[in-house]
Amino acid sequence: QVQLVQSGGGLVQAGGSLRLSCAASGRTSSTYTMGWFRQAPGKEREFVAAAGWSGSLTYYAGSVKGRFTCSRDNARNTLYLQMNSLQPEDTAVYYCAAGQYLGRTPGEYDYWGQGTQVTVSS
What we know:
The protein contains no helices and eleven strands. The protein has strands at 2-7, 10-13, 18-26, 33-39, 46-51, 58-60, 68-73, 78-83, 92-99, 111-112, 116-121. The relative contact order is 0.31.
């Protein structure tokens, strides 16, 4: 069993930056793909970014490419999401996830963090 505990998030003005962290504990594996999803009220959970086990292979949603950076520190079993140039449409609950595959859909991930609110004011 893997537990994912998120930190970071909060309120930021448009154009600002935030960094989210996701620390894995329990029976962890550095070979897991780790990714980020977000869900706004009334919307489905959408893919944001993901990184393979080495962190070299990354995928980004088109809406965040060039603004967000997904990275990982395997020694600390921690995933990060650096969010720059934040926009109001980025407002959502952000979830980290871990799984066997580098996927873009929630069903491809096995473990989930508790979620953290990111609010971007205009």
